[in-house]
Amino acid sequence: MIMIILVYVGMLTLSLLQIRRTYQLDEFEPYEELLLSEYTKPVSILVPAYNESAGIYGSIRSLLSIEYPEYEVIIINDGSTDDTLEKLTEKFQLVKINRVYRKQLETKTIKGIYQSVLYPNLVVLDKENGGKADALNAGINCSRYPYFCSLDGDSIIERNAFLKVLKPIIESDDEVIASGGSVRIANGCTIQNGELIDVGLSTKPIVLMQVIEYLRAFLTGRVGLSRNNLLLIVSGAFGVFSKKWVIEAGGYAHTVGEDMELVVRLHRYMKEKKVDKKIIYVPDPVCWTEAPESIKFLRRQRKRWHRGLFDSLWKHKKLMFNPTYGSIGLFSMPYFFFIEFLGPLVELIGYILMIVSVFTESIQMEYAILFFLLSLIYGSIYSMAAVLLEEWSMERYPKVRHFAILFFMSLTETLWYRPLTVIWRVEGMIEMVAGKKGWGEMVRKGVSND
What would you report as the CA-atom Rg of the chain, rounded to the nearest whole angstrom? Predict the structure, then answer.
């Protein structure tokens, strides 16, 4: 527990320093200047869509209204069984076209390529179902620009998000090959025709805890790791990559956690090629996405995420404690294995032993209470710190009421939400041992009012 607390305190400190530095630089170099800059990189926005009829229209509308000089939007209909393709055809007046498709990465069969009559930079790729990784590889093959962004089909992007997430790539002279932005929970927000009208909070406790969890993961964990080029994950919901390096590394792999696996493989590829490249996280650009509102689907999501974490670590186990791979092998891989992957198992064993010890009177009650309070305090303080960091830096939740709700909900995390996620992640470990594959069905209701 002491080791974990020290690691988290260190990451929180690094996050505070990095966010402060980022905002100081932005005061002197406004993002809006990139709109007129000749060095701005054109980008292909890839949106894999499988049964995304409920939210796909609003997501595309938000992409077509972003502030960026040159971009294309490629929707990959991955063999949807609902009316996703029909809805896109109707809403955007799609027509079938002949377009150059360079098969640099192997994918399932492409059935057709369509372009919008209303928006020439909107392309829809219709293909046989092959999974998210296969859909993204197909999108890469179809893309025209040197950088691509992967987005989830239910995501809503803020208008200036691409200026912010691409700024470090533009200014790095190709040293930065991948950049990830923040992901926030859209449940409770007012979104119309793909545009965020008003930031709000859901009334459901399970969603509120996910808001706090996302704040902690992005504003503390990823900022801290990114500062020293130790980041092993760029969220599949919002990340920009250099197409050249991704293709050289082999594209997306067919795994449950394809986003993390790609980032780990890019790090590995760079070290083996002995080139100095960076993968970073930028806290300010925000993508809003729908979160599960039921225990059933949240549990399924967390089990899948934990299986994906192990899958990525296992595929690249050669990096673990290997000095050849620098700080990635000596710090990042051990951190994700011992803290993120094994942590839930150790924590669950601790809960069980503590309860058994109390009933068998093999531990003094004073120590049991002290241990429980320590666990409660450190977990709650860490979550509260993430909420305070959000208010201090981003101010995405402008109302005092929102801040107060998140702050006081964070006090309850250790009492009910954290034990639940610990149990679900251990269940994911059991499924991993049992050899379970696949994503599992996720039902979405859509966050945008069309």
Answer: 22
Burial of 310 (0-12, 13-18, 19+ CB in 10 A): buried
β-strands 195-198, 43-49: how paired?
A: unpaired
- Which of 19, 7, 99, 36 has its CA nearest to residue 339? 7
Which residues touch 50 (CB under 8 Å, ≥6 apart)? 77, 78, 79, 80, 84, 129, 132, 135, 153
- pLDDT tens, residue by residue, 329-361: 999 999 899 989 999 999 899 888 888 887 888
- Least trusted range by pLDDT, from 180-189, 268-277, 416-425: 180-189
Joined together, the tokens standing for residue 368 give 């049991």
Whole-model pTM: value is: 0.88
Rounded Cα gap, residues 244 and 40, in angstroms = 17
**Averaged pLDDT for residues 74-99:** 92
Q: Is there a contact between 154 and 290 (Cβ–Cβ < 8 Å)?
A: yes
Cα(80)–Cα(51) distance, integer angstroms = 5
d(CA 230, CA 126): 36
Look-up: residue for tokens 């076209």? 97
| Amino acid, single-letter form, for residue 373 | L
CA angle 316/317/321 to nearest 5° reads: 120
CA–CA gap between residue 166 and residue 252 (Å, rounded):
21
Residues in CB range of 26: below 8 A, 6 or more apart: 284
Which has the closest alpha carbon to 409: 209, 216, 211?
209
- The two tokens of residue 300 are 């399924």
Predicted confidence (pLDDT) per residue in 232-285, tens digit: 988 877 889 999 999 999 999 988 888 899 999 999 999 999 999 999 988 776
Contact status, residue 274 vs residue 172, Cβ threshold 8 Å: no
List all residues 6 or more positions away from 395 whose beta carbon is below 8 Å from its beta carbon: none
Q: Are 136 and 247 in contact (CB under 8 A)?
A: no
Concatenated DSSP letters of 136-177: HHHHHHH--SSEEEEE-TT-EE-TTHHHHHHHHHHHTTT-EE
